[in-house]
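so my prof wants the structure for this chain in the tokens format not the other one, which i didnt know existed until like an hour ago. anyway here's the sequence
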Amino acid sequence: MSNSSTPPSSNQADGRGRILDVAETLFQERGYNAVAMRDIAKAVGMRQASLYYHFQNKEQLFVCVREQMFERHRVGLENALAQADQELRSQLQAAADWFLSQPPIKFLGMMQSDMPSLSAEAEQRLYQAAYISTFEPICQLFATAQANGKIRNDVIPNLLTGFFLSVLESIPYFQDESKDRSDEKIVREMILVLLEGLEPR
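here's what i got, hopefully its the right format
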């Protein structure tokens, strides 16, 4: 956060953007607790004290980094779904394609390792950002399909959304076990199982 109430100059904005980009990479690779402000300053190429001109502390920087990431996902997911047809299978494929085109969010690590280290206010902000940008749009796909009679009435859209996002998050980890299968093939199989089940017809 700047100490001045005046609008930031282009150089200041560029500096802030560079900090956010570098910090996102470091937090993504190591997690919140393993990254110090001095690590970020060194990677950006500035004095550590200069970071505090833009951000009051590491928590504020982390929240800004994650909110920027979630906003990118919100816009990207919205655009991907807008270009897909209205069939649930096509919409899920478009959503999966978007998520797999981006670095993994690593929800589990964020919830288990990062969030407990944050203040209650920061934690709530990130939960809200994550819900609005990633969970809610997918949940709405399942809820709309259910309302239109496209999927069973006894399934719970929230649970389907959690399953869908969890499998997408896991693809980079089990892909080595399926070297003959591309991300696209794995996603198609996942959607097939999700919509049609495992039992032979």
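also thought this was worth mentioning. The chain is about 70% helix and 0% strand.
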